[in-house]
Design a protein that fits this description.
79% of the residues lie in helices and 0% in strands. The protein is elongated and about 50 Å long. The protein has one domain: Four Helix Bundle (Hemerythrin (Met), subunit A). The longest helix has 30 residues. It is built from 7 helices and no strands. The chain is mostly helical and 145 residues long.
């Protein structure tokens, strides 16, 4: 089966847009300012969920259509993306905690302090861009039948 390039580009555009929103927030407001505003924090968390879901949708589509390998669950998706070479193993391993974090936000079974969350976002937000660039390179250089 063929992957739907338009669908992949739509997911990647969504990740770029959410990344840009995070960048703008972190440039405009300091951590103490953000921590004082519960709705801003909730918005940031929701934005992170949207990014994780767009990443997972991207990888699930490629795994299913390009590799004939349907996967279930976010963690399996990021692991298989690294194992199959869609993403470098190093990026897959680096993003796995982000996927764990997405699950914890949705299912509320693991808590992280808001301060720690902000530090992680500031330190690792460029991984979202690395993901986009890697997927674009994969699409550009993948073998076509």
């Amino acid at each position: 089966m063929k992957i739907d390039i338009e669908k992949i580009q739509q997911y990647l555009s969504e990740i770029k847009a959410r990344h840009r929103e995070i960048e703008e927030l972190l440039l405009k407001k300091s951590d103490p300012e953000i921590l004082k505003e519960p709705w801003i924090l909730k918005g940031l968390k929701y934005t992170l969920i949207e990014i994780a879901e767009a990443m997972a949708n991207t990888l699930q589509h490629i795994l299913a259509k390009d590799m004939g390998e349907p996967v279930v669950g976010y963690i399996e998706t990021i692991i298989r993306a690294g194992e199959t070479g869609i993403l470098p193993e190093s990026l897959s391993k680096k993003l796995r905690p982000f996927f764990d974090f997405r699950n914890s936000l949705i299912h509320r079974y693991w808590f992280i302090s808001d301060q720690s969350l902000l530090a992680l976002v500031r330190d690792n937000k460029n991984d979202f861009i690395s993901f986009i660039e890697t997927v674009e390179q994969y699409i550009k250089h993948r073998p076509t039948p």
